[in-house]
């Protein structure tokens, strides 16, 4: 059976992408697909830069993510205490893909960030994590200072072409599935396409 690609646009500061990560990693075992993880930087406004409705929505989103996490046996999802630029961690994810340790890196970044144990905007912390996983700290730093930002921008441009407006968004044959709770719809579509394992 010919394998097909499912794109997954993600950001490490998204609690719903955290929820989607484990099911996304499992998709290739259940369907003839390869998940292509594509970093996409969420631009989040801080307090005072957004409406009260946006503040309410942000608080609701974290509460809702915690409800979903609890239904899966519970894991910590703590809201961030500041607005994060996740660029260093996303470039770290691209570096981890090259080093063949993307899943381990991604699981550690999500868990560390949502337990408030990892600062995803600090390159030295990201370099240390990559080093713990067996990658080169200096290699990451060179990538971050060199082609990493260009590679990240290429994924963001792909996201614009795919009309990505948030994360997680799965894209299969041009159809978008936004959010953790849309994974069953994606799986239905994969089954209809004859890709079930």
Mind explaining what this structure looks like?
The chain is α+β, with helices and mostly antiparallel strands and 197 residues long. The chain has one domain (4-192): Glutaredoxin, CATH 3.40.30.10. It is 53% helix and 11% strand. It is built from eight helices and four strands. Strands 2-1-3-4 form a four-stranded mixed sheet, with helices on both faces. Helix 5 runs antiparallel to helix 6. The protein starts with a strand and ends in a 5-residue tail after the last helix. 33% of the residues are buried.
Count the E strands. 4
- How can the largest sheet be summarized? 4 strands, mixed
Say what the CATH topology is.
Answer: Glutaredoxin
Given as residue ranges, the uncertain stretches (5+ residues, pLDDT < 50) are none
The helix tally amounts to 8
Percent helix, as a range, is 40-55%
Write out the strand line-up for the largest beta sheet, numbering strands in chain order: 2-1-3-4
């Amino acid at each position: 059976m010919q394998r097909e690609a499912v794109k997954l646009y993600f950001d490490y500061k998204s609690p719903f992408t955290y929820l989607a990560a484990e099911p996304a990693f499992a998709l290739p075992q259940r369907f003839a697909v390869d998940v292509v993880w594509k970093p996409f930087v969420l631009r989040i406004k801080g307090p005072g830069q957004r409406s009260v409705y946006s503040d309410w929505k942000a608080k609701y989103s974290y509460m809702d993510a915690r409800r979903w996490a609890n239904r899966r046996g519970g894991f910590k999802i703590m809201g961030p205490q500041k607005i994060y630029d996740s660029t260093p961690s996303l470039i770290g994810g691209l570096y981890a893909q090259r080093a063949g340790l993307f899943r381990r890196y991604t699981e550690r970044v999500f868990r560390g960030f949502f337990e408030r144990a990892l600062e995803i905007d600090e390159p030295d912390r990201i370099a240390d994590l990559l080093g713990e996983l067996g990658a080169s700290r200096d290699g990451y730093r060179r990538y971050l200072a060199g082609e990493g930002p260009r590679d990240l921008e290429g994924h963001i441009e792909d996201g614009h072409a795919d009309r990505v407006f948030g994360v997680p968004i799965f894209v299969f044959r041009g159809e978008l599935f936004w959010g953790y709770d849309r994974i069953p719809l994606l799986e239905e579509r994969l089954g209809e396409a004859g890709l079930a394992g």
